[in-house]
């Protein structure tokens, strides 16, 4: 039976992965099944990357033979191989190819990879997360690009919970909810919070860190944890279905990323569904995701001194955060799978 769509991405079947790539892949596939019908969607898991790549030519032929549309969601390494191979195989099948981009790094990769650029120019659709990425891709000469925000299926809290009086007493509870690695800026947040608390000679802020530790940075994080004062803790991993219940009791989410090419981080969608304002570094697509003074505040990318000043201002006037909660909940409605998939469907 001919399938309407085949999805190639990291599902990690049988295992629990909480990274943004896996969550986005599973979310898209589930919504496609909801819309097209389970029987019209087939899935291919790229987990165990080397084994997958060895089988990729056969997988590609099977997908193109059985599906009208092939949708891929690879990360940095996978896209270099998957896109050119599918383009070559599609010479014989003439099916529609779609690339749903995760994050905001693609334009930088294309500037140094003409083979990949030529392959992607032959895709029927490239779906980036933000308007700023759309503009950058268009500047490269791509006319097959569409803006499809990241999304999550989350049980947002009730409006009454977001708008009730949030009297904030010390200490104010902050959290980080992301992959645990140096380039997520975790040390920046720790440094700022330590300095503010030390100068005040009391615990103004606490910080709880959630998320999977990058497998290549476990030693770094173990050493970092050894320096934690009592008001900073690592809380481990939380299933993405429980993210809202975990976040809703915090004062604010901090996102001090050092990845300038972030797209729409899933952690911010989690925060909005929990009516939780965000304090973040101004990465490339910041303005596509955070409304300054409405759903959060930003500081100059990489500027720790400005980060410090902003957190000092918030400490002296907590209402700068608490008054934003209802706006965060409204913003969450823009990142539901039901709405974002409407960008993809007309091209299938």
Automatic annotation (TrEMBL):
Gene3D superfamilies: Glycogen Phosphorylase B. This is Glycosyltransferase. Residues 174-330 form the Glycosyl transferase family domain. Pfam families: Glycos_transf_1. It comes from the Bacteria. It comes from Xylanibacter rodentium.
């Amino acid at each position: 039976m001919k399938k309407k769509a085949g999805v190639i991405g990291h599902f990690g079947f049988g295992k629990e992965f909480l990274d943004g790539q896996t969550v986005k892949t599973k979310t898209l596939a589930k919504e496609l099944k909801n819309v097209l019908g389970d029987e019209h969607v087939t899935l291919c898991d790229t987990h165990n990357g080397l084994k997958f790549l060895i089988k990729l030519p056969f997988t590609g032929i099977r997908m193109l033979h059985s599906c009208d549309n092939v949708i891929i969601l690879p990360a940095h390494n996978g896209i270099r191989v998957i896109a050119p191979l599918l383009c070559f195989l599609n010479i014989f099948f003439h099916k529609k190819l779609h690339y749903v981009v995760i994050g905001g790094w693609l334009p930088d990769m294309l500037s140094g990879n003409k083979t990949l650029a030529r392959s992607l120019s032959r895709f029927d659709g490239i779906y980036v997360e933000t308007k700023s990425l759309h503009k950058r891709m268009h500047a490269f000469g791509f006319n097959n690009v569409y803006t499809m925000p990241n999304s999550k299926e989350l049980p947002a809290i009730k409006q009454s919970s977001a708008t009730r009086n949030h009297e904030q007493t010390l200490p104010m509870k902050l959290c980080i909810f992301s992959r645990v690695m140096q380039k997520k800026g975790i040390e920046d947040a720790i440094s700022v919070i330590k300095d503010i608390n030390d100068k005040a000679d009391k615990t103004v802020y606490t910080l709880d860190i959630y998320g999977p530790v990058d497998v290549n940075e476990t030693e770094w994080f173990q050493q970092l944890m050894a320096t934690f004062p009592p008001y900073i803790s690592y809380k481990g991993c939380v299933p993405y279905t429980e993210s809202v219940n975990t976040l809703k009791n915090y004062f604010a989410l901090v996102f001090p990323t050092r990845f300038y090419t972030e797209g729409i981080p899933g952690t911010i969608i989690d925060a909005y569904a929990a009516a939780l304002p965000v304090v973040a570094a101004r990465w490339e697509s910041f303005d596509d995701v955070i409304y300054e003074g409405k759903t959060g505040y930003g500081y100059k990318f990489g500027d720790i001194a400005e980060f410090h000043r902003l957190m000092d201002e918030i400490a002296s006037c907590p209402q700068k955060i608490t008054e934003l909660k209802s706006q965060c909940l409204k913003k969450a409605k823009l990142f539901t799978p039901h709405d974002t998939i409407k960008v993809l469907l007309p091209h299938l």
